[in-house]
């Protein structure tokens, strides 16, 4: 069964012409995304026409000043908010017609998300927080337990299975959140300021873990205003006033290669 079939969604990929190499679609493609928030005051145009492609295995950081619209963009890509206009494709499947329940199934099976404030279920143990998404995705209890045990061991949390989230440090809670996000081996990990409420030791730890999972092929989209975190990625998208203003692939030798998808020139970003 293909991944598209596994997600319960029809694939848009047409037949492969004979003689042509089948090419894998990007994990995410977005075109013309627009989102305005209607809160208490005047409407806020948070995302103002964004085109974006994230390839399989990429580690992309979206960076920019506070209020630039980074989190809104991540929420749109994870289906947590609906764009006013524009389209999103996930692994070649257009999600325009997806409602909340369809998005929930897609997230459960193929998209892991970590947030700044962990969002663990406070009255469940560490073990249950990590096993729950595996069970909801249809894993057997035995397999969910085994996957949970392996991840917690890997994330340095062996022995904490019976702890409640409130008994853990911020860094430990974020590692549990990472385990929960990764337990179903998602095609895409979305991380929204995952070190935003951690001290420098916790920040280093999260950075190290993201880099380790990326080295094994995990596709990651990280939202951060922290330049040090962004530099762990292999591509940095600068976001300003709801738009992509720069998109650079980081080279280890000579700094950055521009992809040419943003406006010319690099903006000095203030935070
Ligand atoms: N639910 C909402 N209702 C009203 N306005 C919102 C909402 N969410 C975000 N905004 C506004 O939209 C703009 C973009 O917010 P967003 O959180 O996406 O930016 P950001 O770049 O992630 O900022 P930060 O780094 O401070 O989190 C801001 O002006 C914010 O106040």
TrEMBL record:
ABC transporter domain ranges (all copies): 28-266
Disordered: annotated segments: 1-25
Keywords noted in UniProt: ATP-binding, Nucleotide-binding, Transport
SMART domains recorded: AAA
Listed Pfam families: ABC_tran
InterPro entries: AAA+_ATPase (IPR003593), ABC_transporter-like_ATP-bd (IPR003439), ABC_transporter-like_CS (IPR017871), ABC_transpr_LolD-like (IPR015854), MacB-like_ATP-bd (IPR017911), P-loop_NTPase (IPR027417)
GO MF annotations, alphabetized: ATP binding
UniProt similarity note: Belongs to the ABC transporter superfamily.
Name recorded for this polypeptide: ABC transporter ATP-binding protein
Organism name: Streptomyces macrosporus
